[in-house]
Amino acid sequence: MSENVQTPKPQDHERQRCEIWTRVMGYHRPVSEFNPGKQSEHHERRHFVECRSEQAVQA
Questions:
Q1: 28-59: b or e for each residue (b if 16 or more CB lie within 10 Å)?
Q2: Nearest alpha carbon to residue 20 among 49, 53, 43
Protein backbone atom coordinates (compact mmCIF):
# COMPACT_ATOMS: atom_id res chain seq x y z
CA MET A 1 0.00 0.00 0.00
CA SER A 2 3.03 2.27 -0.07
CA GLU A 3 2.65 3.88 -3.47
CA ASN A 4 4.84 6.72 -4.60
CA VAL A 5 2.14 9.35 -4.85
CA GLN A 6 3.46 12.84 -5.42
CA THR A 7 1.27 15.72 -4.40
CA PRO A 8 1.78 18.93 -6.35
CA LYS A 9 3.38 21.82 -4.46
CA PRO A 10 1.31 25.01 -4.56
CA GLN A 11 2.76 28.06 -6.24
CA ASP A 12 3.56 31.10 -4.08
CA HIS A 13 0.45 32.93 -5.30
CA GLU A 14 -1.71 29.93 -4.25
CA ARG A 15 -0.42 29.82 -0.68
CA GLN A 16 -2.29 31.26 2.29
CA ARG A 17 -0.58 32.78 5.31
CA CYS A 18 -1.06 30.73 8.47
CA GLU A 19 -2.00 32.90 11.43
CA ILE A 20 -0.59 31.68 14.75
CA TRP A 21 -2.49 32.35 17.96
CA THR A 22 -1.23 31.90 21.49
CA ARG A 23 -2.57 32.41 25.00
CA VAL A 24 -1.26 35.52 26.71
CA MET A 25 -2.42 36.84 30.06
CA GLY A 26 -5.43 34.51 30.14
CA TYR A 27 -6.83 35.05 26.65
CA HIS A 28 -5.98 34.01 23.09
CA ARG A 29 -4.54 36.49 20.64
CA PRO A 30 -2.81 36.33 17.23
CA VAL A 31 0.97 36.62 17.44
CA SER A 32 0.90 39.08 14.50
CA GLU A 33 -0.75 41.63 16.82
CA PHE A 34 2.01 41.44 19.45
CA ASN A 35 4.43 44.32 19.82
CA PRO A 36 7.96 43.64 18.47
CA GLY A 37 9.35 42.73 21.90
CA LYS A 38 6.60 40.21 22.63
CA GLN A 39 6.94 38.72 19.10
CA SER A 40 10.66 38.22 19.71
CA GLU A 41 9.92 36.62 23.07
CA HIS A 42 7.39 34.28 21.43
CA HIS A 43 9.92 33.15 18.80
CA GLU A 44 12.46 32.33 21.54
CA ARG A 45 10.07 30.03 23.41
CA ARG A 46 10.86 26.36 23.73
CA HIS A 47 7.94 24.11 22.91
CA PHE A 48 7.26 21.03 24.99
CA VAL A 49 7.07 17.70 23.13
CA GLU A 50 5.78 14.80 25.17
CA CYS A 51 7.09 11.32 24.41
CA ARG A 52 4.68 8.42 24.12
CA SER A 53 4.50 6.29 27.25
CA GLU A 54 5.40 2.59 27.14
CA GLN A 55 1.86 1.75 28.25
CA ALA A 56 0.35 3.49 25.20
CA VAL A 57 2.79 1.72 22.87
CA GLN A 58 1.87 -1.73 24.21
CA ALA A 59 -1.89 -1.17 23.94
A1: eeeeeeeeeeeeeeeeeeeeeeeeeeeeeeee
A2: 43
Overall pTM surpassing 0.70 (yes/no): no
Q: What is the dihedral of CA 18, 23, 24, 26, to 10 degrees?
A: 150
Strands (E), the chain: 21-24, 27-30
d(CA 25, CA 23): 7
7-52 pLDDT, tens digit per residue, is 888 888 988 888 888 887 788 889 888 899 988 988 888 877 888 7
